Amino acid sequence: MSPLYQRIAIVGAGVTGVLTAHALHRAGFRAIRLFDSASSFTAAAPSIQCGPLILPCHGSRLLHRLGLLALIPKTARNDIVKIRSTTTAGHTISSYDPVQLVRDAPHRPRDSSIPTIACHGRDLYIALTRALPKHHDGVEVKFQHTFKELKQNEGNESEKGEKGAMLACFDSIDGPVESGVDLLIADDGLHSPIRSRYLQQGGGEVRSLPGMYVRGVVAADSIAGGGGVSVPHSNELIEVFGAGLKFCYCFIDDGRHIGWLASVSSNYQDALQDPQTRPERMAKLFSSFPAPVPALLSSTLPFSIDTCPSEDLRPPSTFHSADGRVVLVGDAAHGCAQELWQNVALGMEDACMLSELLSKHAPPEAVRLYSQLRAPRIKYALQLTRSEAEQALRPSKMMASLRDMAMSMMPPKAQLDAIAQLLQYDALREAEQA
Ligand SMILES: Cc1cc2nc3c(=O)[nH]c(=O)nc-3n(C[C@H](O)[C@H](O)[C@H](O)COP(=O)(O)OP(=O)(O)OC[C@H]3O[C@@H](n4cnc5c(N)ncnc54)[C@H](O)[C@@H]3O)c2cc1C
Q1: Residue nearest ligand 1's atom 46 by CA
Q2: Closest C-alpha to ligand 1, atom 51
Q3: Closest residue to atom 9 of ligand 1, CA basis
Q4: How far is the CA of 307 from the centre of ligand 1 (A)?
Q5: What is the pLDDT of residue 53?
Q6: For residue 134, what is the enclosing H or E element?
Q7: What is the CATH architecture assignment of 3-75+120-206+313-391?
Q8: Three-state DSSP class for 263?
Q9: Ligand 1 centre and the CA of 32: distance in Å?
Q10: CA 16 to centroid of ligand 1, rounded, Å
């Protein structure tokens, strides 16, 4: 292992930061510090803790290989065997089994039978944080530490490192803190200040899409009308496409809760500003959608609903700073639109690939290889998710009918090949072969 990369600081304890700490520890690193400005894991990473999460199989395979998938008990997740898209009239646009798509790959990835899973994001995050190795095992977690800057150690040799070594500077409740580091891994979210400050080679600007996301979780036995909800198949994830509106739903555990995610074009945004009236307003907006969609919406409690703007990142041209001391992971590197549920799986790829490369290659070469391997993959994922989001947010009925017609006329193979490229990818094999 490279001596120059002994002390690693991860800024941001989001799901990718936590996974990176796991993956680095597994790769043999023992001086890992994880910093977050929040006061605890409960307050960190709001985007994963607020609602349902779909983790496509290229992410769940990596979790499995890190030995972490089993941390989410079977009762707290749902293995998705089919993803079906329909129009509001109930016509099927496409239907596929994610595991089958992976099995058909020319270079079938290892563990190809591991499924796409749905769970509550908080259940995954809590399981990962609880399993983090402890301080004496080489992983130290520091809350209420807000990253400020990197600077050189001007003092004499000390525990922070020799003169000229790099120091990461934080604001903490006890005042300024400096920590000697050899590599800074930034998982500080989509609007990453570290990206803007230390990577200046083009791309990496946040772009708005014309709409927003609304998501919620509802207890299956509380659905309006009583008698529970009828989801056609309990292991199906269903996506319904309307005009400027899209609705996805599935069970997120063993039948007790349903998670949903709606894409709403900006034409309808104003109606959803008041959190108290959101469930009824949403039910009204989606009233032409097939059952059980309106009932799911009107039965979701206002505090179980969360909204966020639809945004993504212009693909950055590189993922490391010119001196090789700073490297991006997670949403900071590739925050994408929520269509196709790519974000967390891409973050898992970052964590596994970076750890593997850092354990095998000398410092500047390791992060250079990371950027080189991640760039085409991230560019592809960003393009595909953006184009899916643009299609979902088309507000006119005519445009929506043309879209549905084009989607149903496209030969199934062509339609699924694009998704298969995302699902078949084996990040660890790529890193091992580099
Ligand atoms: C509505 C919605 C639905 C979604 N659905 C899915 C889905 O189904 N599947 C999927 O894969 N993804 C989904 N996502 C996206 C997914 O939740 C995020 O991509 C993922 O959680 C991002 O994790 P992260 O670790 O990269 O960053 P974040 O979770 O953003 O973590 C960043 C952390 O950095 C900390 N931080 C920031 N600045 C500093 C600083 N200066 N100093 C110290 N700490 C700092 C923050 O406190 C935070 O804890 C969804 C998101 C939304 C909003």
Answers
A1: 12
A2: 47
A3: 341
A4: 14
A5: 98
A6: none
A7: 3-Layer(bba) Sandwich (3.50)
A8: strand
A9: 20
A10: 8
404 SS3 class: helix
391 confidence band (pLDDT: 50, 70, 90): confident
Per domain, the residue ranges of the chain are 3-75+120-206+313-391
Return d(Cα 233, Cα 215) in angstroms, integer. 21
Q: Which of 247, 263, 338, 388 to mutate to test the pocket of ligand 1 (most atoms within 8 A of CB)?
A: 338
Residue type, 390: E
Question: Is the shortest distance between the CB of 45 and ligand 1 below 6 Å?
Answer: yes
pTM score of the predicted model: 0.95
Residue 175 phi, psi dihedral angles, 5° rounding = 105, -170
At 367, list the tokens: 């992060």
Quote the CA–CA distance of 223 and 300 in Å, as a whole number: 8
Percent of the chain with pLDDT over 90: 75
- What are the start-end ranges of the H helices in 142-223? 193-198
Which of 15, 6, 12, 248 has its CA nearest to residue 118? 248
Instruction: Using the mean position of ligand 1's atoms as its centre, give its distance from the Cα of residue 136 in Å.
Output: 28
